[in-house]
Write a structure and sequence with these properties.
Radius of gyration: 21 Å
Structural class: alpha/beta
CATH superfamily: Spore Coat Polysaccharide Biosynthesis Protein SpsA, Chain A
Order of helices and strands: EEHEHEHHEEHEEEHEEHHEHHHHH
CATH class: Alpha Beta
Number of helices: 13
Strand content: 5-15%
Number of domains: 1
Number of strands: 12
Helix content: 40-55%
Shape: globular
């Protein structure tokens, strides 16, 4: 089985320059004047026993004006690392080549589907890269992870594409081992979280799905930084760029709508050592508000479509299901009032004001006029056309040749 592993790497302005409001919001982009985690991740690939795969690094910039610097920095890191496998880079110059190719062939309508901005777009480029290299499956990894299990790739391929209890396994989720050696989230439950018990819900479902046998079981959640997706799925279903974060679980929901199940392998783990997230608590909550409201509206807007299956919040377990039910707006209201009170007690009125804005945004989100279900149906059709266009042997060989990628 031909496999491609893809590792996106997110970079931001130098630490001295700070973050600007026009910059994209990522959890912890590496400042250009810091070492970051990419080289560590690439070098840990050498720990793997099975190295029979392509490795692609996606270079992502949080700001448009530093894209060239980001690509140059990542090019140097890739050149200096020793993963022990053929490593390719896909960044802004490569994307420009792809866009030019589409324009030359009068396929400009596909250009919006291939972008290096936003988590979902980046994940779609991960899928596209695997397709372009002719792979049967893609392994999605993040650059703040470390391979410690030499058998990781054998485990990643053990079930994918095979039958399990009457289902063809086309998506396998692994999980993260935290620096403390556990898979549970070790985060203090603060009073304001009473109505926003996300960590508790996540740990409960982790204990049920990861912590118990059997080894392989259907899962309502997936980590985007440890997932294996078969081409039968990624050729048909994309990530939804309209969602700004939580794109991994949203992809799971999209896949379910088209009849594809995700299975979690409780032996497929990877060490996760992420830098601290620089954004304040109110912003993290706001990003979650947008994702949960969008996903709830997508579920609520479902209508009968041939070949599709209705997905309900109840089917999505304690997490994310508990945040996709009719009490979501009440949860947002109560939790943000309590978080605002915390900010006021600390003498931070600006933070309190942002919490009140969260309540307002929940009632008037930026996608108020969008039908998320119909929007995704249109996106899915375009995605299938895009992937079909690059299924032509001549097309993918021409483009790979221009990019300097292997195309046997």
């Amino acid at each position: 089985m031909k496999i491609t592993m893809v590792i996106p790497s997110y970079w931001g302005r130098k630490k001295s320059k700070g973050w600007r409001s026009s910059d994209s919001v990522y959890d912890h982009p590496t400042p250009l004047d810091e070492e970051g985690t990419l080289e560590r991740a690439l070098n840990s690939v050498a720990n793997l026993k099975d190295k029979n795969f392509n490795l692609v690094v996606l270079g992502v910039s949080a700001a448009e004006d530093i894209q060239a610097e980001v690509e140059s920095r990542i090019t140097t890191i890739v050149a200096n690392s020793i993963p022990g496998v053929e490593t390719l880079l896909l960044s802004y110059s490569h994307l420009a080549t792809i866009h030019h190719y589409l324009t030359e062939h009068k396929k400009e309508r596909f250009i919006p589907l291939l972008q290096l901005e936003g988590y979902s777009n980046v994940r779609n480029l991960c899928l596209f890269a695997a397709h372009l290299l002719g792979s049967e499956a893609v392994v999605l990894i993040d650059d703040d992870e470390i391979f410690e299990d030499p058998q990781f790739m054998e485990k990643a391929q053990e079930f994918i594409g095979k039958e399990f209890e009457g289902d063809e396994v086309l998506a396998v989720a692994g999980y993260y081992i935290n620096p403390d050696g556990d898979f549970l989230i070790n985060k203090e439950a603060l009073p304001w979280m009473t109505h926003w018990n996300k960590v508790d819900c996540m740990n409960r479902v982790f204990q049920e799905i990861i912590g118990k046998e059997p080894r392989l079981k259907e899962t309502p959640f997936v980590f985007g930084g440890n997932a294996v997706i078969h081409r039968k799925l990624f050729m048909s279903v994309p990530f939804d760029p309209a969602i700004t974060r939580g794109e991994d679980i949203d992809f799971l929901i999209n896949a379910r709508m088209f009849g594809f199940k995700f299975f979690l392998d409780n032996q497929l783990s990877i060490k996760h050592k992420a830098p601290p997230k620089p954004h304040p608590e109110w912003r993290k909550v706001r990003e979650d508000i947008f994702r949960f409201i969008y996903e709830k509206r997508k579920l609520d807007a479902q209508e009968p479509v041939p070949g599709m299956t209705e997905v309900t919040a109840d089917e999505l377990g304690v997490y994310p299901g508990e945040f996709l039910k009719d009490d979501l707006e009440e949860r947002i209201f109560r939790s943000n009032l309590m978080l605002a009170a915390d900010y006021l007690i600390k003498g931070e009125p600006e933070g309190a004001a942002e919490c009140l804005k969260n309540i307002h945004f929940a009632r008037t989100p930026p996608f108020s006029d969008l039908n998320p279900f119909q929007n995704f149906i249109r996106l899915q059709k375009e995605w299938k056309d895009l992937m079909e266009f690059f299924s032509s042997e001549k097309v993918y060989k021409d483009l790979c040749s221009q990019l300097g990628y292997p195309h046997d």
